[in-house]
Amino acid sequence: MKRKPNVLSLLIAIMMVFSIFIGLNVKANAADAFQTEVVRLVNVERAKIGLPALTETSQLDQLAIMRAQDMASNRNLPDDHNTPTLGYPIDTLNNNGVAWTYIGENIAWGQNTPAEVVAAWMNSPSHRANILNVKFTEIGIGYIKGNYPLNEKGLIGSGIYWSQLFINPGTVVNPTKVITSNTLSTTNTSTPIKVSKVKKHGKTVSKKIAITVE
To answer: What distances in angstroms separate CA 42 from CA 59, 171, 204, one per listed residue?
Structure first.
C-alpha cells in the first residue's frame, strides 16, 4: 500500500527552508545597512565644511569587505595596513583592476556601530583628514566581526573589524610598484606611507593610511 505524502511534514520542511532564506537575507541587509550608514555619516561630516559627498561603489565595498575579512581571519590590525593575505590597499586595488590616482584607508576594531566607528575616526586628526580629503570621490565600507587582534596588547573579547577605502579613480590601473619598509615606489613617484593610530585608554582602536600618487 502506497503511503500518502505527509502534508504537515512537507509544510514544515518548506517553512524551515524559507526561514533560513529569510535569516540570510536579514543578515545581508544588516551588513548593507551598516555600510550605508557609515557612508551617510561620512557625507554629513563632509557637508559641514562644504565638501561634495562621496559615492559608495559596490566594487569598493567588496574590496573593503575582503580587507576586513583578512584582518578578522588573521586577528591582525596591521600598523602599516599591510594585511596578512591581501597586502597594502594598493595591492588590493591593483590586483582587482581598480584604477586610481589617490587612495586612503581607515581601519578599526572594536566599535560596534557605524556611529561609534565614525566618531572614533572623526576624533582623530589623521583619520578625519582622510574622511574630509577633497581629493577623494569614492568610498567603500567593509566590516566583519571577529576576536580581538593578537598583535595589539591589552585588547580582549570580540568586536568588528572595519575597513574604509577611499579613492579618486584614475583612467588606467597603476603600474607594478616596489614596496620597502616605509616607502612605496611606482614608475613615476615615491610617496611615504603615512600611518597613525587612535588610542583609547592606552589601547589602539583604529588606524589609517593615506597614500597619494600624482
So the answer is: 18, 26, 22
Asked if residues 164 and 141 have their Cβ atoms less than 8 Å apart, the reply is yes
- Classify the phi-psi angles of 142: left when phi > 0, otherwise alpha if psi is within -120 to 50, otherwise beta: beta
d(CA 79, CA 122): 19
For residues 92 and 63, give the distance between their C-alpha atoms in angstroms, rounded to a whole number. 7
**Among candidate residues 168, 171, 159, the one with its CA nearest the CA of residue 210:** 168
Query: Is the pLDDT at 64 greater than 70, yes or no?
Result: yes
* Residues forming beta bridges with residue 55, ordered by sequence position: 138
The backbone region for 75, taken as left when phi is positive above 0, alpha when psi lies in -120 to 50, beta otherwise, is left
- Assign 152 a pLDDT band (cuts: 50, 70, 90): confident
| pLDDT one-digit tens code per residue, 189-206 | 223 334 444 444 334 445
